[in-house]
Structures are given as C-alpha cells and as structure tokens.
Amino acid sequence: MIAVLDFGSQYNLLIARRVRELGFYCEILRYDVSAETLRQKGTRALILSGGPSTVTDETVLPRREVLDLGLPTLGICYGMQALCHILGGRVEKGTSAEYGRSVLERLGDSALLHGTSDPFEAWMSHFDLVTELPPGSTTVGRTATCPHAAAEHLERRLFMVQFHPEVSHTPQGSRILQNFLVRLAGLKPDWNLEDFVGATVERIRAQVGNGRAVCAVSGGVDSTVAAVLSHRALGDRLYPIFVDHGLLRKNEADQVDLILRQELGLPLHAVDASERFLAALAGVTDPEKKRRVIGETFIRVFEEEAKKAGPVDFLIQGTLYPDVIESVSVRGPSHTIKTHHNVGGLPERMHLKLVEPLRELFKDEVRRAGTVLGIPADILNRHPFPGPGLAVRIPGEITPERLRLVRESDAIFIEELRRSGEYDRVWQAFSVLLPIHSVGVMGDERTYEMAVALRAVTSVDGMTADWARLPYEVMERTALRIVNEVKGLNRVVYDITSKPPSTIEWE
Ligand code: XMP
Q: What average pLDDT does range 467-482 have in this prediction?
C-alpha cells in the first residue's frame, strides 16, 4: 500500500489516481496519521501531498514518528516544504509565488528524474520557497524562480519536488512517480481489477457470513456493479430492490428490469411507487424540499419492501472512494450546495450493517470492474443521473404533464447524441423544462407553450464542468424534432454556462 498523506491539496485524488494507474494500491490518509496505522496497513512508501498551509505555522505537519519509519518518501509541493522544515532545511514564507507552467532545468545525475528530458515542463503552485535543503540532500532541478525545484537524499530514500508531477501539465510526471515507486522504493506493481473483483467477493462473503443482505439498485453504474459483486458472493441471500419513483427517464424502468434481471440474472424486486412519490411531491416547489421528500419517501418504500425479504442484517451500498476519504481538504462546492446523499440514515434506521464493496475505487475503476464482471457497456457508459431524477429538472411543481414534456424531449436529445456519436464524448446531457410560456407559430396557428433547455457538459468528476460544444447539426436536428414531436413545447434553448458559476443540474 502506498500512503498519500493529505495536506489539503486539490490534487490529492489525482496523486492516488496516478499511483493506481502505475499498478499500485494507494490510500489517502490524514496528514497526521500515526506510524502504527501506517504499519498496520502495510505501507511500503509515503507520498506527502501539497496543501494550502505554511510550514512555519507548525500546525499542519506529519508526525515525526512517521518519518522515522524510514519508508521511501516523496514530498510534493507543500509536502516537500514540510520535509525540509522538519528535517533541518529552511523554508521562507511568501518569498516567491510561482503559479502555472514553468521550465525545470535538470542539475547533474538524478535517480528521481531518470529518463525525463532536460529541461522539462513542470506545473508549479506555491507561495513559500525552500531556500535550504535538509543536510545530505542534493538539488537535481531548478526553475528560474525556484533554486530547489527537485531534490533527493538517496541514502534516506527521501525525494522532494516543488512542482506537481501528478497533473497533466507536467507531462513527464508519471515517469517521475514511477521512478520513485519502482526504481527507488523497489516496489512491484501488483494492483489490478481482476484481483480486486476476486478479493472483494471473498471479503463480502467473510463480512456477511451466513447472513442476508438487501441493496437498492437504480440501474446506474455504481449500484449495478455493487449488486453484481454482492450477488456473486451471496447468491440468493442478496435481495436487490429497485424503486421506481416515477421520476425516471423514458422507458428507464423497463430497461433496468431487462438488463438487471434478464441479462445479469439478479433476483430483482421492482416496486412501482410512482404514484406515492408524485402524491408526496404535490405542491412542493423548493429544490431542497423536493430532495428531502423524495429521500424520505424512498426510505419508507425501501423499508417496506425490504421487510418482505425476511430477516436481513446487511445493506450493500455503492459508495465510492472520493466519498469516504477522511480529508482535510475543502471539498468542492457541489458537496455543500446540494444535498446529494438522498438516502442517508437508512442503515441506522433499519439497524443494518453497511457493506461497501466499492469504497476503495474511483469511478473509472468501477467501470473497469464492471467490464470484468461482464456488465453491458450500455450500463457502464451511462451518464450519471441524480437520485431525485427528473424532479430536479423541472423547476417548480412536478406534474405528470411536465414529466411527460421533460421525458419526451430528453429521450430525443439522447437519441440524437447517440446517433451522432456525441453521447460518449459528454459527461452528462439532458433536457430541463422551462415552465414559462412563449409565443410560437406552427402552421398557421399561433402557439403559446413551454420551452426546454438542453444541457450537455464535459467534466472529469462532476465537480467542475464546461458546456459541451456540440455540432450545430446535432443541436438543430434535436431542436427541430423536439418541437415537432413533443406536443406542448414550442421552443428549445441551449445552456452555455459552465460550473462554476452554474451547477450541472438546474436545481
Ligand atoms: P450539480 O448539479 O451539483 O451536480 O453540479 C453534480 C453531479 O451530481 C448530480 N446530482 C445529484 N446526484 N442526488 C444525486 O444522487 C442529487 O440530489 C443530485 N444533484 C445533482 C448531478 O446529476 C451531477 O452529475
């Protein structure tokens, strides 16, 4: 296990990603993790992340006992400064801000920079500056403003870089991480998803024993992969429940049933609770209240259905790694602006123990695990869909008629994106109802109907997003079809805001 000590950098997940891409299992741990925890986890190398603090403030530093473990260590940005500060070097506050692209000139032979070009492009983001290295270290790279941009202490297996090797703006960064892990720490890559699948099936069996488990499936990637893994482990002792809340996309309930039950062989228990949800949502217009009502109704319906399973002790949940990291980092805005955890509190309420088979994985790893499990690409490559479904795509009140308008127009948009090959190029695409009336003309008649906004965004993780530059022909065809085929709509607009300042969903 490679431990990334988290000092709060926005790039921490990227460090873990790069390390895993190189074939090493990696966890992000709090910066002040104890030596005992690292020992128990079988840590073989340490990476100290960047972060917004200043080392001379003495508050955000690794424990000395952790450095005394003598593990191969790589300090990145703030991590380098922290190492220098603790091990007898010197860091000066605010002497030289350097942000963005810079050119690193190599100095002498370097084990860490082995195989990189000279010079190479390096991404910088620092305010404080290392002016003196710990005794015994050698400078192996500098930039115009940073005299110690890369340094090493071979005897102590201590490596330091002021730049960020984990970002794509440091094109040779992966090579540097690989040098650290393979050549210098002497580790062999051994992390792959086939092994993960086998080991996870065993782990679920061990955790659940002879017990029984329920899980909620939505047809999305995470819940499907979690359910299929658990089904492999538990067979009929798994009771997967699919709640149709009536806020799904066109034909979605049937498709989910078809794929999960017939293609994947899950013993699916589907509940059509759409009328109950719509009744509970009647008159509700506030976005957060919608989420609350949907979350509460979901829990009730799920609970009732789970009772039919007989005695159950476990709840399987498709929680992913980015949601579980105990982090000092400031999470991105979407985590606080909207209540995303639609069914929080379910395990406590139902006295169930949680099983989270995906809690170590990133989204793209879940997709690859899904491929290993034989889950159809249709499910694995699906765009994310919010738990509250179309409810957050209908500003104001939700009515069957409004659902029809958003559902039909959405289906046309998605069909056109698939047909043109654009679907897989965007992170998410959908239609949003604009509950205003505007004038149109169809044939000889004046119309006065509602509009939809089309939203398509590119993103890597949903935290930030840019509007997708779709080909005009695709947009034109989609708009034309929507006003021709969906009665009740006479106008289509395209959302060209990014996130931030907007969010992906409209509510
Ligand atoms: P926003 O709109 O915050 O969305 O930019 C970021 C990502 O999260 C999804 N989203 C939700 N997912 N429950 C969910 O499970 C929610 O209440 C919710 N709201 C937004 C959104 O679709 C996008 O992928």
A: 98
Bridge-based pairing state of the strands 90-92 and 445-458:
unpaired
Q: List residues bridging with 315 in a β-sheet.
A: 214, 354
pLDDT over 50 (residue 99): yes
Q: Which of 291, 292, 320, 338 to mutate to test the pocket of ligand 1 (most atoms within 8 A of CB)?
A: 338
Contact 293, 394 (CB under 8 A): no
> Where in the sequence is the domain holding 352, given as residue range(s)?
196-380
Task: Give the C-alpha separation, 214 to 203, whole Å.
Answer: 17
Choice from 297, 428, 505 to test ligand 1 binding pocket (greatest atom count within 8 A of CB): 505
Using the atom order of ligand 1, give the atom closest to the CA of residue 459: 24
pLDDT at 32 over 60: yes
Q: Give me the percent of the chain exceeding a pLDDT of 90.
A: 80
Count of domains forming the chain: 3
Q: What are phi and psi of 125, to 5 degrees?
A: -160, 75
What DSSP designation does 249 have?
Answer: P
211 and 143 within one domain:
no
What CATH number is given to the structural domain containing 8? Answer: 3.40.50.880
CA dihedral angle for residue 270, residue 274, residue 275, residue 281, rounded to 10 degrees: 140
Give the whole-number percent of the chain exceeding pLDDT 70. Answer: 96
CB of 175 within 6 A of ligand 1: the answer is no
Distance CA 424, CA 381 (A): 7
- Determine the pLDDT at residue 341: 52
Written as six digits, the tokens of 396 are 């104001």
Identify whether the C-beta of residue 242 lies closer than 8 Å to the C-beta of residue 257: yes
Q: Would 222 be classed as within a structural domain?
A: yes
Residue 266, both tokens: 């899950």
Residue 455: CB atoms within 10 A of its CB come to 24
Query: Packing angle between helix 363-372 and helix 193-208, nearest 10 degrees?
Result: 90
Q: Is 500 in the pocket of ligand 1 (CB under 6 A)?
A: no
DSSP 366-407: HHHHHHHTT--HHHHTPPP--TTGGGGGS-S---HHHHHHHH
Distance CA 167, CA 178 (A): 14
How wide is the angle at C-alpha 331 spanned by C-alphas 329 and 176, nearest 5°?
55
What residues are paired with 446 via a beta bridge? 441
pLDDT value at position 85? 96
Per-residue pLDDT, averaged over 104-118, amounts to 97
Distance (Å, whole) CA 322 – CA 336: 15
CATH of the domain at 405: 3.30.300.10
Are 219 and 346 part of one and the same domain?
A: yes
